[in-house]
Amino acid sequence: MIEVKISKAIRRALTLMEGHPAICHVAISSFNKAMRTTSVNATFDVSLPNAWRSSRESPSGVRLKEEVRFDFPNDFPFSPPRISLRRDFNRNLPHMQPYLLSGRPVPCIYDGDITELLHQERLVGILNQVSVWLDRAATLTLMDPEQGWEPVRRDTFESYIVADADKFRGLVNRRGGHRFFEFEYLRNTTNGYKGFVRGLISPSVLKVNYNAVSEIYKEKPLDPPLRYGKSLALLVWPGKLPSGKLIVADSYLPETVSNVDSLKERAKSYGCLKELDSGLNWLKRCLSRDVEAGPLTIAIVLMARRPFKVIGSQSCIELCPYIVDIYTPDLFLEGGETEVRPAIHLHTVSRSLLAQLSGGAAQSERPRWTLVGAGSLGSKLALHLARAGYAPEIVLDKSPMLPHNAARHALIPPTGGSQLLGMDAKARRLCDALSGLDQKATPIIENVVSILKSKTKVRRVCSKDSWAIVNATASLVVRQAFALTESLTTRVIETSLFAGGIVGMITTEGPDRNPNTADLIAECYGILREDPDLAHIVFRSDDAMSRQSIGQGCGSLTMTMSDGRLSLFAAGMSEYLLAKQRNGLLSAGGEILIGRLSADGLGIEWCVHQVSPATVVNTINGGKWRVHIHPRAMAKIEQERICHPKVETGGVLMGRISEASRIINVVDVLDAPEDSTRSATEFVLGTKGLSSQMKTYSESVGGSLYCLGTWHSHLSVSGPSSTDRATAKAIDLSRLCPSVLLISTPAGFQALLADEVGK
Fold first, then answer.
1. Taking Cα atoms as reference points, which of 155, 178, 202, 180 lies closest to residue 348?
2. Does the chain have fewer CB atoms within 10 Å around its N or its C terminus?
3. Are 92 and 251 in contact (CB under 8 A)?
4. Please, which residues have CB within 8 angstroms of residue 459's CB and are 6 or more apart in sequence?
């Protein structure tokens, strides 16, 4: 053992290595003073099957005892050791890095950052991974056909090319061939003209001929050290053998291409050399008339057909991209020695990629849905869902983007003189952003209320097979317009915030829009009344809405809160919408979610309330007026009838009334006062304490629920009696018109409007 001065941490590492069950010998081989690294050779016992142990080597070239070098840096254990194998180790194996370390092959022992592995499992984790890697390399099980073909390791290269892999794989056919595409790139010239390149290959096929080729190449300087260029990319793929069988590259080769000659050798191993030569020769002919110029950067992508699907895809085609500089008119200035630089392939921004990275199925269909309201909350919902591959199909908002919207809107305004362009319609700007996430959406820059009033225009809001309409406007008028529109069959989901962003709500309509969006907000108030603490927050007198100055002489009525607080609620709402899009809406009834900001402002607790359909009763004398009896009220009415089966009974109806949508929401029922009288033929509502009871009830929810009228039962199926009419007048309802008289009979309910009764 060489006597060198090493750190205590490395000495501890040596002790650990000597005690590892897979290691039979450990020795320090060298100490590099310049690099301040300590090289340690560790001999691993490889688990060779008995059939190979006598020869002391597997058919893949892995020996019974393999010496592995660990180069420990001076700052170990903060940084991991660099690992390399003997110089003559077989490199034609999966999970092998494309580079050498002092002439020694480097295994890829871990699918991730080895530094993270060191800090998570310490050195023993790295040793275990090396041992497993050697065992699998010996038995050729580094690659599992069930998992897929391991792509050639390219993640250490500086240059990368963004390309739509699925689009290009779709070009591959049995005949073999090549295609040209437009190639845009940024070149970093920090290390001279041959610095790394970051490029994007257009999915559209480019026609290359004598006349067009000279117009393709353009390059100009940007802020140093960057240059922007437009060029072309050449894609080539293999065809079939004379026997008719497809050419398949079933041998794993590490990425060792460094010049044109080795590129052609690699193309030959992939079975596409003829196609590569054909594409390059045609390009050379097209450039033959040009004056001498260069270097011109192009991309070349070899499409290798593998024996089974490539990991991370549904195709057996692997993309292997390269960067090379050409000159006119002879293409390669140094002939076969012209440098070729391997590059990383990256997927384009696509809906399938976003869906996959968000935990969904890459091939899932994008639901068709409409977003109404592209303001602060709506824009965040749209972009959160778009990043998961579920952007809206239609965005509807009448308003332009104004400077003050930047406080919470998901879109960032452009700088400088471009700010004026950023003040376009919110719907259009949001749709432009969604297109950058590979999801087209149609902007509608109109008043949604006007659209909902027209049966023909309603069809523009959503299609017949739309998943839902999400209303993020926080508008009372819009909510009532949705409730009023009977021709709309698509369910409405409303998202809203209250009390300066302390409380958030999500309401989702049921099948056939029962309960509808107005029913659900009324039900929300009923739920809040049952939680006095939460009701106090929502209905407190210091309303969170205030008029904020947004310019000299103008202001905006808005709810002031930080963008972070709004984003907390938007995140939860987006997750809810995403789950419903993936798993489907409820098959029965509606749903209410109420979220409350935690005391420290760092989180939100959501409570879910399932809401059964409302019982809809058409009024006998009120035209289109309808009474929606909520499950809470229905249960109390039924319980009261059970308690008084042989006499008529009744009570007071509490809820909300909308003259705009002509709906009376009966949310709750108050018991009849103690001075009420009941008999088999009539019920007379008492008055003792009733006014105080109604006032207390209404004040508990900030006046959001109030007296609507009365109800009583009939023991047989019959209409309203003269006594019923008198009872309807017993309560002073002068501030509300109309009020309702509800009669519960064995056959169901009857409803009359009190203003008509009083005539």
1. 202
2. C
3. yes
4. none
Tell me the per-residue pLDDT of 549-607, one tens digit each, with 9 for 90 and over.
444 444 445 678 999 999 999 999 999 999 999 999 999 999 999 999 999 999 999 99
Q: Of 582, 611, 640, which residue sits at a domain end?
A: 611
Q: CA 477, CA 454: separation in Å to the nearest integer?
A: 16
On the question of pLDDT at 545 being above 60, the answer is: no
Instruction: End-to-end CA distance of the chain: give it in Å, rounded.
Output: 112
Residue where one domain finishes, among candidates 564, 594, 611: 611
CB atoms closer than 10 angstroms to residue 23: 18
Name, in order, each residue with C-beta under 8 angstroms of 111's C-beta and a sequence gap of 6 or more.
none
Does 587 lie in the same domain as 654? no
Residue 624: CB partners within 8 Å, gap ≥ 6? 662
Place of tokens 């010996």: 138
Q: Binning pLDDT at 50, 70 and 90, where does residue 170 land? A: very high
Distances (CA, A) of 402 to 70, 315, 374, 547: 60, 47, 12, 16
Helix (H), strand (E) at residue 595: strand 590-597
Residue labelled with tokens 């390791």:
153
Q: Which pair of structure tokens corresponds to residue 55?
A: 């020869």
- How does pLDDT run across 645-682, given as a tens digit for each residue? 999 999 999 999 988 888 999 999 999 999 999 999 99
Q: Identify the helix (H) or strand (E) that includes residue 573.
A: helix 563-583
CA distance 84 to 27: 15
421 pLDDT band, cuts 50/70/90, is low
Name the domain count of the chain.
Answer: 4
Could you tell me the maximum CA-CA distance found in the chain, to the nearest angstrom?
113
Residues 233-237 have a mean pLDDT of 98
* Matching residue, tokens 């691993």: 44
Q: Give the bridge partners for 611, in sequence order.
A: 590
- CA 83, CA 497: separation in Å to the nearest integer? 55
Q: State residue 552's pLDDT score.
A: 41
Nearest to 482 by CA among 522, 427, 519: 519
Average pLDDT over the chain, rounded to an integer: 91
**335 plus 379 within the same structural domain:** no
The answer to whether position 152 is within a domain reads no
User: The CATH number of the domain where 575 resides is what?
Assistant: 3.40.50.720
Q: Looking at residues 250-266, what average pLDDT do you find?
A: 96
Q: Kindly report the backbone phi and psi dihedral angles of residue 634, in degrees, each rounded to the nearest multiple of 5, phi listed first.
A: -60, -45
Q: Report residue 757's pLDDT band, with 50, 70 and 90 as the boundaries.
A: very low
Give yes or no: residues 519 and 597 share one domain: yes
| Side chain identity at residue 104, one-letter code | R
pTM of the model: 0.86
Helices 517-529 and 532-539, packing angle to 10 deg: 120
Domain-embedded: residue 149: no
Q: How confident is the model at residue 4 (pLDDT cuts 50, 70, 90)?
A: low
Closest CA to 256 of 91, 413, 131: 91
Mean pLDDT of 126-139: 97
- Considering the domain architecture, whether residues 401 and 520 belong to the same structural domain is answered as yes
Grouping H, G, I as helix, E, B as strand and the rest as coil, residue 736 is coil
Evaluate the omega torsion of the peptide bond into residue 77 and state whether it is cis, within 30 degrees of 0: yes
Half-sphere exposure for 322 (CA within 13 Å, toward CB):
28
> What residue numbers bound the domain in which 388 lies?
366-611
Q: 736 and 651 share a domain?
A: yes
Domain co-membership, 392 together with 525: yes
pLDDT tens digits along 516-540: 999 999 999 999 999 999 999 998 7
pLDDT at 420: 62
Q: How confident is the model at residue 250 (pLDDT cuts 50, 70, 90)?
A: very high
Place of tokens 């209320």: 449
What single letter denotes the amino acid at residue 156?
A: T
The amino acid that residue 51 corresponds to is A
Closest CA to 155 of 342, 376, 362: 342
